[in-house]
Recover the amino acids of this structure.
């Protein structure tokens, strides 16, 4: 009985440690892809050949994509959590 509680406590602690640290690959990918994308938006918007409102449309599309991506990763995180069958 005591060992079962120790296992549950150890598993919960490992889960909290895993959530607290970010994978360096994801950080590097966000910097590598994010900074050029963010710099490209004003460059496109300042181009005189671009129609009025195109920059707003592109920004809205990027925000929608970011939101959908965050939803997918959150659902994946919730699905990957171990279930508590004892409760």
């Amino acid at each position: 009985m005591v060992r079962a509680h120790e296992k549950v406590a150890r598993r919960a602690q490992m889960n909290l440690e895993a959530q607290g640290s970010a994978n360096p690959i994801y950080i590097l990918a966000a910097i590598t892809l994010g900074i050029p994308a963010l710099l490209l938006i004003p460059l496109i918007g300042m181009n005189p050949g671009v129609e009025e409102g195109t920059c707003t449309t592109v920004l809205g599309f990027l925000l929608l994509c970011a939101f959908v991506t965050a939803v997918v990763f959150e659902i994946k995180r919730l699905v990957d959590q171990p279930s508590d069958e004892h409760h």
